[in-house]
Amino acid sequence: MKAVQLVKSAIAMSGLTLAIVAASSASAEAPLTLAQVSDGFDPAATYARSCGACHNSGAAGAPRLGNTEEWQERIDERGRDQLLTNVIEGYNNIMPAKGMCFTCTNEELEVVLNYVLEESGVE
Predict the structure, then answer these.
(1) Residue 74, φ and ψ in degrees, nearest 5
(2) Is 33 left (phi over 0), alpha (psi -120 to 50) or beta?
(3) pLDDT, tens only, 37-92
(4) Whole-number Å distance between alpha carbons of 16 and 38
(5) For the chain, which terminal residue's Cβ has fewer other Cβ atoms within 10 angstroms, N or C?
(6) Confidence band of 12 (pLDDT split at 50, 70, 90)
(7) Alpha helices, H only, the chain
(8) 106-119 and 80-89 are packed helices; what angle lies between their axes, rounded to 10 degrees?
(9) At a CB cut-off of 8 Å and minimum separation 6, what does 41 contact?
């Protein structure tokens, strides 16, 4: 059991490393202020920067963008409110708090979650 958890954590960390590298290269090209992020918030771009490394590949069991079954299962088991809490606070020592979007407000994180669910065909 511990070996499985270590493997999941290692996979998650590799995804986080990719997300950090992607975010730092994107911010080096065009740094954003908090006001710009709030005023012109783009959930697709935020997803790509902060969430995509794990949720595109399914790293450490992350539900994949566009996979209705994986996301619907989570909605059915936990509900949308709990999923948002997991996004904000992190989940199971694998998903980091705020999904690595440290400049995102809770409201913006909810917009990203809604984007992910819509893109995945979940109402």
Answers:
(1) -70, -40
(2) beta
(3) 456 899 999 999 999 999 999 999 999 999 999 999 999 999 999 999 999 999 99
(4) 23
(5) N
(6) low
(7) 2-29, 34-39, 43-46, 52-55, 68-78, 80-89, 106-119
(8) 120
(9) 108, 111
User: What pTM does this model have?
Assistant: 0.69
Q: Determine contact, residues 59/11, Cβ cutoff 8 Å.
A: yes
DSSP state at residue 18: H
Query: What is the Cα–Cα distance from 59 to 18, expressed in whole angstroms?
Result: 11
Separation between Cα atoms, residue 24 and residue 37, nearest integer Å: 16
How many angstroms from the chain centroid is the CA of residue 84? 10
Please give the C-alpha separations between residue 9 and each of 16, 33, 43, 55, 76, in angstroms, as whole numbers.
10, 31, 26, 15, 25
Q: What's the one-letter identity of residue 87? A: V
Phi then psi dihedrals of residue 91, to 5 deg: -140, 125
